[in-house]
Amino acid sequence: MTYLWAITPEKVQTAIKKIIEVSKPRKLILFGSYVHGNVNLNSDLDVLVVTGDEIENPRKESVRIRRALKGIVMSMDILVVPESKLEELASMSGLIYREAIKNGKVVYESS
Question: For the purposes of burial, counting CB atoms within 10 Å of the CB of 72, is it exposed (0-12), middle (13-18) or buried (19 or more)?
């Protein structure tokens, strides 16, 4: 039985394309259960969107991205961080950024 909200490779690819189109990020990193192959019905797609420093409010950018992804029926956790702050955040223990950098999969990087 397939559930409407289940994470599928097709939905993931659609989400990646839409995020790139809407946000024009420097880098997109998937992390968490999807990358590790441990997806279940309670899983969400964890996405780290690394932007340029022109994005002054990561929270607003996250909301903007979520609105663009509205038609994709899949639970997603979207984190937005400016490139200049990523290293600092990834160095702090207990923050999810470290996990994303260490064990995540880069699915897009601007040239």
Answer: middle
**Any domain includes 76:** yes
Q: In this structure, is residue 72 part of a structural domain?
A: yes
**What is the separation, in whole angstroms, between the first and last Cα of the chain?**
41
Q: pLDDT tens digits, the chain, 111 residues: what are they?
A: 556 778 999 999 999 999 999 999 999 999 999 999 998 888 899 999 999 999 989 999 999 999 999 999 999 999 999 999 999 999 998 899 999 999 999 999 998
Q: Which domain holds residue 45?
A: 9-109
> What is this structure's pTM?
0.92
Q: Give the domain CATH number at 59.
A: 3.30.460.10
